[in-house]
Amino acid sequence: MRRRAMFQDGQPKTDEKLLIIHADDFGMCHSKNRATSLALETGVISSASIMMPCAWVTEAVAWCKKHPDADVGLHLTLTSEWSTIRWRPVAPASQVKGLLDPQGYMWSSVEQAARHATPQEVETEIRAQIELALQMGLKPTHLDSHMGTLYSDPRFFEVFLKTAIEYKIPPMVFSPTPEMMLMAAARGLNYRAIYQRIRAAGLPTIDYLNPQYAPGESKERHRERLHQYLRTLRPGVNELIVHLGMDDPEGNAVTGGWRYRVQELEILQEPAFKRVLEEQKIRLFTYRELAQLYNYPQ
Fold first, then answer.
1. For residue 173, what is the DSSP state?
2. What is the pLDDT of residues 203-247, one digit of tens each?
3. Could you give the CA distance from residue 142 to residue 71 in angstroms, rounded to a whole number?
4. What is the arithmetic mean of pLDDT over 9-13?
């Protein structure tokens, strides 16, 4: 039975350790789809998000339609970072020129996207991605941002928040913890003012985020770091972002860091990982449940 949350200062509080294990990049390629769908089906992750501009998005959406209870949102995408696999905007190129590099693909870095794109172009593109998902029959449980581009500029964040509120799809936003206040300040965001708007809109919030990604480390160190994270998890709603992959020719060709992604899936599948979850009394959680916790319309 789901426990009802207590409310403090208008915000749900819980003494449970709730954890959203969230896989980014669903739809990027077939290998990524294989890994993400396997992890969702076996319950080693609890949530994922789809990149609508990517070549294999149709396969990802088809899987979601066969698994309507899966917790899947949109990984709103404004950059294209890999050298061997690139993607273009969903919106007409003429409407989002600032998002395009000289070859007509999205810029490879957050800094380039922030330097060249206007807020209007960003809004046009993220609306196009949401509309495409809806047209394909996907009902996203949440919205987040590939490479954090929508959190990199106060103007982009404003567009992100406004669009999410209009579509009534919860965006990935956060409680005003000291850690979040520091992260926001580093990006030029006045999070105290932003949080007042988040509260006024009744948006669900994540208490603690771990956007961990450390390609190049050994599998032993990778495992140790993830287990330690679980052992130090705080009560509240936590999110752990993971990047998963399969050890196959396609996956290995996409990025030199694919081995890290393969290891991450292997570690999550190990009995030892599940054992630590149980020992620490951590309950896997979803964005759909988060919306219910806040009585946010779905």
1. -
2. 999 999 998 888 889 999 999 999 999 999 999 999 999 999 999
3. 9
4. 62
Structure tokens at 249: 């020719």
Going by C-alpha positions, the residue among 274, 290, 207 that lies closest to residue 5 is: 290
Q: Are 32 and 8 in contact (CB under 8 A)?
A: no
Yes or no: say if 167 and 174 are a contact pair by the CB < 8 Å rule: no
CA dist 253 and 180 (Å) reads 35
Q: Report whether 73 contacts 142 (CB < 8 A).
A: yes
Q: For residue 145, list its beta bridge partners.
A: 76
DSSP state of 68: T
> Under DSSP, is residue 169 helix (H, G, I), strand (E, B) or coil?
coil
Q: How far apart are CA 242 and CA 258, in angstroms?
A: 13
**Over pLDDT 90: what percentage of the chain?**
82
Does domain 6-293 fall into CATH 3.20.20.370?
yes
**pLDDT interval class at 6 (50, 70, 90):** low
HSE-CB of 94 using CA atoms within 13 angstroms: 0
Task: For the chain, give every domain's residue range.
Answer: 6-293
Judge contact between 264 and 21, C-beta under 8 A.
no
Structure tokens at 15: 């003494």
Say if residue 174's pLDDT is above 70: yes
- Widest Cα–Cα separation across the chain: 54
Q: Specify the pairing of strand 17-26 against strand 236-242.
A: parallel
The vertex-251 CA angle with 288 and 80, nearest 5°, equals 70
Q: What is the pLDDT of residue 288?
A: 97
Write down the residue that tokens 């995408």 correspond to: 77
What's the CA gap between 45 and 40, in Å, rounded? 6
Q: Are 261 and 23 in contact (CB under 8 A)?
A: no
- Token digits of residue 192: 């105290």
